[in-house]
Sequence to fold (390 residues):
Amino acid sequence: MPNSSNVPNERSVEARECLRLSIREFVEREMPREAAARWDRENEFPRDVFARLARMGVMGLAIPRALGGTGRDIVSTMVVIEELSRRSLAVSVPYIMASCYAGMNLVEFGSPGQQRDLLPRVTSGDLIFAYGWTEPDVGADLASVKTRAVRDGHEVVIDGAKRFCSGAALCDYIYTLVRTGDVGDRHGGLSLVLVPPSTPGVQISKIDAMGMKGAATTDVVFDGVRVPVANVMGGEAGWGRGWAMLIGAGLDVEKLEVAAIGIGIATAALDDAWRAVCAPRSGERPDQSATHQLADMKAQVHAARLVLYHAAELADRHEKCSVETSMAKLLAGEAARDVALRSQVILGIEGYVQGRDAERHVRDALLVPIMGGSSAIQRNNIFKWSAAAT
Fold:
């Protein structure tokens, strides 16, 4: 029998559509296009907007009611991510960092003390995690990380470096994957540690990436960084259990989070292209070649969305869904890139001007097939896991 604290929330379809409409209204009211353009231009995280989003009660959607959330509901979480991403990743990505990175990991792996102290901060919007996993010489092979942590009395001392650590400059904790055992023990010698970015010895340098502004990606160096042993995820019992935490349900949901971002971007790009083609012109009908492109784009986005929410429903029920989440990530990433680029072509020179929504959509969309496991990795996983099941 599943743990009752992890039973998915049985929200109705109507309730989720009401949530979608509420987020859309919030976006139009609190995240106007000109503000989204400014956040992108200045690489700014709008913390005041984020605080108002938290007051809507959506930060606890990945947290069971027994632990102070609104009930574990992965489908509704994806709804929020998708709708926020239609306007700005400067808000949707920090939402993921709070609701999913912090909330889900604390629910799944936190010690009772960590859950007691930190989950209320998640639901109030006052706690954000950044993933400190990838390293300069380590891409998707996380079992090869070199950042090392050793025990020194009641403290953990960390030395090493992380690459592409998005949101490290704005987070409350860098959720850091470290090697705590022998190098030869690839999977058993890993732990996850909560490191405040203000800790002495933490050095953060922003990477000037093309897109995903507002939650800037960074390089992070740990030079003799000391944190309490209590900051090991799971407490004392979490020492050496990092790999099991990495490959838990959170890995499937991370793919869904990125897929929801991609569908949000693709939908925004499609909407802009649709308006441009179908804008009333006296005596003119829309060009058929353009309307056929719109039809293809709409079909591609709709198909990716169906796969996303099917996979999210499986994750909500704690069913095996690694193949489905990889398919969702793959299809949504390809849809985001393809639709954003086709929309830019339809909009012509206006879509190429820096600062326009279409130009931002392209920059953001190009990242979706890469982050959270590239499209190539998803194809490998789909084949490997499907073949193993036959």
Observations:
- The radius of gyration is 21 Å.
- DSSP finds twelve helices and seven strands in the chain.
- Residues 1-8 have pLDDT under 50 and may be disordered.
